[in-house]
């Protein structure tokens, strides 16, 4: 009986020592799991930001060569849904997104254009993809507007087509679930967003680049 009690006491002692060692060294089953749970990992950039940064690489070279504004440029991503932000004010120096807003696409003179269609033809009423130089402001049919000069073969008739940057009350100030209004080819934004663009454009001593792509 004494031998049994002695053996039992030894087993209890060994079990206690094993628990103590594992606890002290952190080799228990809960420590690694709780450590992984608490670890904060940096989120990967969204596809939109990656796309913007890729465009910015080309934009930086372009504005430097053409002596445009090298601090700020405008990107319009027509691949995004109409009710989501797709006009981006981008800081080229810091590689960061400053602001974003809604913008229309052209209806190609249809009552309602499903999907996207692009054209550089005079009278098409469609959006033209490509780089633009934001020109001088004026007050016309759509109020305060900026003339746009197409810089690529895909949009070099923009000035002739009277494609301009302007605001309109049909464009919401924030993102919506449904589609927004369509234009006859002009990148049209909300009036309050135009005021933000106006402050940047009018304060710039050099032309600002606007790039529409998908």
Keywords:
disordered N terminus; L,D-transpeptidase catalytic domain-like; 8-stranded mixed beta sheet; 4 helices; 214 residues; 31% helix; globular; alpha+beta
Write the layout of secondary structure elements.
Layout: H1 2-25, H2 30-38, H3 47-66, E1 72-77, E2 87-91, E3 96-101, E4 130-140, E5 143-150, E6 164-167, E7 188-189, H4 191-203, E8 209-213
Parallel strand pairs: 1-8, 6-7
Antiparallel strand pairs: 1-2, 2-3, 4-5, 4-8, 5-6
> Averaging pLDDT over every residue, what do you get?
84
- Count of domain modules: 2
Give the class-level CATH name of the largest domain: Mainly Beta
Which percent range fits the helix content? 25-40%
Largest sheet: 8 strands, mixed
- H/E element sequence: HHHEEEEEEEHE
Q: Strand-residue fraction?
A: 15-25%
| Spatial strand arrangement across the major sheet | 3-2-1-8-4-5-6-7
Number of helices: 4
User: What Rg, in angstroms, do the CA atoms define?
Assistant: 29 Å
What CATH architecture label of the largest domain applies?
Beta Barrel
CATH H level, superfamily name of the largest domain: L,D-transpeptidase catalytic domain-like
**Shape label:** globular
Name the assembly state.
Answer: single chain
User: Pairing-aware structural class of the strands and helices?
Assistant: alpha+beta
- What are the low-pLDDT stretches, counting only 5+ consecutive residues below 50? 1-45
Give the end-to-end Cα distance, rounded to a whole number of Å.
86 Å
Might you state the CATH topology name of the largest domain? Answer: L,D-transpeptidase catalytic domain-like
Number of strands: 8
């Amino acid at each position: 009986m004494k031998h049994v009690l002695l053996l039992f006491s030894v087993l209890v002692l060994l079990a206690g020592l094993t628990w103590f060692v594992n606890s002290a060294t952190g080799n228990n089953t809960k420590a690694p799991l709780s450590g992984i749970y608490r670890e904060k990992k940096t989120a990967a950039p969204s596809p939109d930001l990656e796309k913007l940064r890729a465009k910015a690489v080309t934009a930086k070279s372009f504005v430097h060569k053409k002596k445009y504004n090298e601090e700020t440029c405008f990107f319009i991503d027509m691949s995004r849904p109409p009710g989501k932000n797709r006009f981006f004010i981008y800081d080229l120096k810091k590689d960061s997104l400053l602001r974003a807003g809604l913008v229309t696409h052209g209806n190609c003179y249809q009552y309602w254009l499903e999907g996207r269609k692009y054209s550089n033809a005079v009278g098409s009423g469609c959006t033209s993809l490509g780089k633009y130089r934001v020109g001088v402001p004026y007050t016309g049919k759509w109020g305060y507007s900026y003339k746009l000069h197409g810089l690529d073969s895909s949009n070099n008739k923009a000035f002739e087509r009277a494609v301009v940057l302007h605001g309109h009350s049909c464009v919401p100030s924030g993102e919506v679930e449904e589609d927004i209004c369509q234009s006859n080819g002009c990148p049209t934004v909300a009036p309050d967003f135009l005021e933000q663009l106006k402050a940047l454009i009018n304060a710039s001593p050099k032309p600002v680049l606007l790039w529409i792509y998908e």
